[in-house]
Amino acid sequence: MHRDPAGPTERLPPDRADVVALELGDERFIAIAEPGATGFVFAAVIARAPIPGEQQRLDGRQHARVVRGALRIEDRGQAAVELALCLPLLFVFLLAIVQLVVIVRDQLAAQLAAREAARAASVTTSTGGAAQSAAEHAVSLRPLLVFADASADTVTVTVRHVTRTDVPLIGSLIPDVDVTATATMALEPP
Question: For 151, phi and psi rounded to 5 degrees?
Fold first, then answer.
């Protein structure tokens, strides 16, 4: 709750406040001003600065020099500098996300290859050859290392692939990733 000479006023939403430069006597200020019942209510003084402008009557006792958007004059080019500083970091972050997506894609492909290889190995007597053929047919990852292990009533297939981290800038920072997937299926009689 702020007070102006006419009495209490409610604080207005921030989108109704203005940044103003004002001159009171010999002192010059940059402040946040909100419209009040009879003039402006100053919410906060930001800094002292000599900024020219037009004289307007704020209330019954004082005259002040008010310029709308005074801070924009001093901050010209600030957004361009901030963008220039942040853009390389944003670009590296986006490249890291792309590398992560490539690794996750290869992990999902290895899981699909393991399921297909286990399904093919569970219905044949030659589990190793059927698993390798089915895994290579299911996905385009190369090279695939396929290991099939048959027990009395199940077959377990493990598929391994080394994903190269070759996304520019990021690939040299991250070592190659070994993606592995395992699937187990019940053996079916031939």
Answer: -105, -165
Beta strands in 58-119 (DSSP E): 63-68
Provide Rg for the chain, Cα atoms: 35
Cα–Cα distance for residue pair 147/163, rounded to 1 Å: 18
Distances in whole angstroms, Cα of residue 110 to Cα of each of 33, 77, 103, 135, 158: 62, 50, 11, 8, 9
- CA distance readout (Å), 134 to 114, 128, 131, 139, 146: 9, 10, 5, 9, 10
pTM: 0.58
Distances (CA, A) of 57 to 42, 155, 159, 187: 14, 89, 80, 92
For 64-94, write each residue's pLDDT tens digit. Answer: 444 444 443 445 688 888 899 999 999 999 9
